[in-house]
Design goal:
This protein is of the alpha+beta class and 122 residues long. The chain has one helix at residues 2-22, and strands at 30-39, 42-53, 56-62, 68-70, 73-76, 80-87, 90-98, 103-108, 112-119. It has a single domain, classed as Lipocalin. It has a nine-stranded antiparallel β-sheet, with no helix packed on it. Residues 1-22 form the signal peptide.
Length: 122
């Protein structure tokens, strides 16, 4: 009897663990208002939009007009995301890390400080 209870508990905990691991964390999915400080051209504001498509993050820097810079590469870790995009003739990267539920911090080109806030739809 004790073996059956032990096996049932073990099976339940294993099932719970698998479900927890399989569920993707979509912290970075959505729109972010990001300010990059101290670049050569001054402080730069950008709106970043990330979506999950077929289990992978995709996205772009979106502007008020049709000025869209798609990310050609995205590296995702549990608490950080690193996006790569083209600006003029250069390949640029921006790494963002989770600060709290609605804020991110990071670096552009591992040099310029970046801070962002989640854009929440009302």
């Amino acid at each position: 009897m004790k073996q059956k209870i032990f096996l049932a508990a073990l099976l339940f905990s294993f099932t719970s663990f698998v479900v927890a691991v399989a569920a993707p964390k979509d912290y970075f999915v959505g729109k972010w208002d990001v300010m990059v400080y101290g670049t050569i051209g001054g402080d730069e504001q950008m709106i970043i939009e990330l979506k999950r498509v077929d289990g992978k993050l995709e996205g772009a820097i979106v502007g008020p007009t049709d000025d869209i810079k798609p990310f050609f590469k995205i590296e995702e870790k549990p608490d950080t995301v690193k996006v790569y995009f083209k600006h003029l003739f250069f390949k640029v990267n921006l790494q963002l890390g989770k600060k709290d539920d609605t804020h991110v911090t990071g670096l552009l080109q591992e040099k310029y400080e970046a801070k962002g806030v989640r854009i929440v739809k009302n």
